[in-house]
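User: Good morning. I'm curious how adenosine-5'-triphosphate would be positioned relative to this chain. Could you predict the structure with it bound?
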Amino acid sequence: MSGLPPPGYLSSTDLIDESGGPVIRRILPAGKDGCQVTAEDVPASAAAIEVRGLMRRFGNLVAVDRIDLGVRHGEVFAFLGPNGAGKSTTIKMLTTLLRPTEGTICLNGRDAVRDPTGARRQFGIVFQDTTVDTELTAYENMELHGVLYGIPRAEMQGRIGSLLELVRLSDRANDYVKTFSGGMVRRLEVARGLLHDPSILFLDEPTIGLDAQTRALLWQHVNEMNDRSGTTVFFSTHYIEEAEMAADRIAVIDHGRIVATGTVQELKERTRAATLEAAYLSLTGTEVREERVTGGEQLRERIRGQRR
Ligand SMILES: Nc1ncnc2c1ncn2[C@@H]1O[C@H](COP(=O)(O)OP(=O)(O)OP(=O)(O)O)[C@@H](O)[C@H]1O
Ligand SMILES: [Mg+2]
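Assistant: Good morning! Here's the predicted structure, ligand included:
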């Protein structure tokens, strides 16, 4: 599909048609206020994340191409796509770190573009790259984050204690993070993302570079937290088995576009595939991607992007 939806309309989630044919697009009327628009399959009262027509350009490159998403409260939602598909760019926009070129983002009904402060209170984030301070202890990293989020002094110690317990790091609380393994750092980042008790947790490729045991442990923590507190989880990954194991629903993103959204069963049915891997390859193709621009050009684009 190419071209813009007619004026006054926003596109809804892209679907593969019953015959397994080309992507078709459902059209929904647009609301007056960006955060009042309701997705067809997610009632407004139940939506934790609502994204409409979200787009981001870096120079001539369209990294995220008018995507629509609806995530219910308490849902574990996977954003599955190959390298360069636009996952991190989308998560950066959802978490107010990058301004969209176009589109609306509502987090628990708060407009992430017009009311970033209100939106920020709704979520915690675990980034693709390590962001804890390795020259501080695990406890100090947590405390610093707590101060930034205005956690009351009286509650600080108790909250940090129980989260470090959740990620099995209590006995390392007072050790410098520079002495931690990659898996311990990731677990600390998950605990930190939960410190202000957010109702939504974003995780951008949280298990990259981790061994199988640590990956399993991390998903166990995330699932425990989802069961216990009903936290909505939105994670990106390019591991098919991880999306299959951990998520209630999956959106497949490729070249900046969402090519399908659904449960594992729905994605398999739509593509008439026996496995999620086969469904994914049928949706995204099997060729290894060439970067659309050369290394030098890409770097230049990135620098230009940072200036914007
Ligand atoms: N700041 C930037 N300036 C210019 N181009 C960018 C910038 N950030 C990302 N891009 C480009 O946008 C596209 C999407 O990148 P993004 O990082 O969102 O992909 P991704 O799905 O997270 O990939 P990965 O799985 O490798 O982390 C890529 O072509 C990338 O080179
Ligand atoms: Mg990424």
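Confidence is low (pLDDT under 50) at residues 1-32, 37-41. Residues 199 and 229 are 8 Å apart (CA to CA).
Let me know if you'd like a different ligand tried.
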